[in-house]
Amino acid sequence: MEKKSLNKNNFKRNKHVGIIHYTAPPSETGGVEIAIAAQTEFLSNRGYHVHLIYGTGGGFDRENIIEHSIPLLSPKSQKILEIQRDILKKEEETEEFLDVKNQIKQQLKPVLENLDTCIVHNIPSMPFNFAATAAINELTEELDIKFIYWIHDIAILREEWKDKIGRFPLTCLLHRNRNITYVTVSHFRASQLEQLSNSHLFGKIHVIPNGVHVEDYLKIDKITLDLMRRLDISFTDLVMLIPVRVTPRKNIELALYVADELKRLIGDRVVKVLITGPPDHQAITMGMKYMEYLEHIIKRRGLEDNVIFCHDIISHDRVRRGEKIIKWSIGDAYAISDIVFIPSIEEGFGLPVIEAGAARKMIFCSRIPPFQELIREGIDGFMFDLHESPYNIAYRIYKEVVADVVDSNFNNVMKRFSWETILSRRLLPLL
Predict the structure, then answer these.
(1) pLDDT surpasses 60 at 252
(2) What does the pLDDT read at residue 1?
(3) Which of 205, 186, 207, 185 is nearest to 194 (CA)?
(4) CA 368 – CA 29 distance, rounded (Å)
(5) Domain assignments of the chain as residue spans, ordered by start
């Protein structure tokens, strides 16, 4: 499938830029997709022809954006799922793997050979579709265009993959050659790359953080108030927002323990915990699915009336069906919250920290390198150690809940983390 919408007015020279990911906005949403949407809109507004290439998703209807759907890029493709299982077990290239890799190359090559630059998000560093990773790696050797490998996450640094380092198919990850420029979303991710063997082959690693459209986080209107009614939230409640996907590395159980302690500290004021991200249905912890594990804690601690999983009604942007609102935006969720709580064990960047600053909300987050990096960049936040007791964390929230650091956060986000500032200063020079 290919949808074309080209601008006929060529002011200066219209460059062609490709952006590749497993999935694409606006119909697919997640941290990486949000960054892709910002890049796509920014570059198309600047007159670049943006070729959005993906396995599932898409749906832009704008000038200068050309969409290319290649289903074999999707990790959810049945064929890809079978190949992934097979090669991870055998640790060698199979006929099926080579066949699909070549199919992906054949579909990508006619698109890529007409580009000036191709940005590839996360496929170079993540283990979800090795055939796609290998195909793109080979095209970086064969085509005379610039590739930007944009790294949000790095699989080989995670515990579950460490025993497979140096063996196929993980050898497909983090390919290096003269046509590839590496970009990471944080200095922490860059330092991780620099610690790998033969790191000099990466060349100069550029750091371009994620950003926000500040105006998305400054709204409270009738629709936002409708969300409060839908979630049974009042202005007197203490609302703790956890804007993350439900997966073990997000450490949501700590938030539940903290909420339980806050209930006792705050007394008559009702504590509400909003968890906006969808569950990872494959995630297992303590011998059970992660979502079931969290539900067990909620029941055991009597938090049924306090914790709300709202991924089914929260999207990145508001979604309407005719005149009816069927999904509220993440900006609405920030607007109705008092504090943002992010207890992650591991992150690549930490977008909720700057989203909270844009929304003028107080931030409490775990003391991990990406969050420390953002705090050093001028975002005021309260950090806690992951081994700290839930009571101590709750008491700090209770003590600081009246402190006002949010205006300085807002000003720093405006100066440092608006998409317009980031992409103008850091992406355009790479193109």
Answers:
(1) yes
(2) 45
(3) 205
(4) 25
(5) 2-208, 214-417
Give φ, ψ of 22 to 5 degrees. -55, -40
Q: Is the dihedral of CA 117, 122, 128, 130 positive or negative?
A: positive
∠351-71-153 over CA atoms, to 5°?
Answer: 25
Amino acid identity of 381? G
Q: Angle, nearest 10°, between helix axes 351-358 and 406-416? A: 110
pLDDT digits (tens, 9 = 90+) for 284-314: 777 689 999 999 999 999 999 999 999 999 9
Which candidate, 395, 359, 377, places its Cα nearest to that of 263? 395
* % of the chain with per-residue pLDDT over 70: 91
Report how far residue 166's alpha carbon sits from residue 169's, in angstroms, rounded to the nearest whole number: 9
355 membership: H or E segment, kind and range: helix 351-358
Confidence of residue 8 (pLDDT cuts 50, 70, 90): very low
Instruction: Write the pLDDT tens digit of every residue in 310-352.
Output: 999 998 888 998 889 999 999 999 998 989 999 999 998 888 8
Q: Is the dihedral of CA 394, 396, 402, 404 positive or negative?
A: negative
Chain position carrying tokens 């209107």: 221
SS3 at position 182: strand
CATH 3.50.50.60 fits 2-208, yes or no: no
pLDDT digit string, tens, across residues 399-425: 877 444 445 566 566 667 788 888 888
Task: Output the pLDDT for position 11.
Answer: 35
| Category of 120 on φ-ψ map: left (φ > 0), alpha (ψ -120 to 50) or beta | beta
CA distance 98 to 95: 5
* Domains 2-208 and 214-417 alike in fold: yes
Threshold 0.85, pTM exceeds: no
Q: Which two tokens stand for residue 176?
A: 């290096």
Q: 17: left (phi > 0), else alpha (psi -120 to 50), else beta?
A: beta
What is the average per-residue pLDDT within 276-287?
81
Q: Rounded to 5 degrees, what are φ and ψ at 16?
A: -105, 120
Which amino acid would we find at residue 139? L
Return the number of other C-beta atoms located less than 10 Å from residue 392's C-beta: 12
Strand order in the sheet with 314-315: 314-315, 324-329, 319-321
| 214-417: CATH superfamily | Glycogen Phosphorylase B; (3.40.50.2000)
* Summary count for the chain: helices (H), strands (E): 14, 19
Identify the three-state secondary structure at position 201. helix
Q: Which residues, 6 or more positions from 272, have their beta carbon under 8 angstroms from its beta carbon?
A: 231, 233, 237, 238, 239, 240, 306, 308
**Number of Cβ within a 10 Å radius of residue 142:** 11
3-state secondary structure of 141: helix
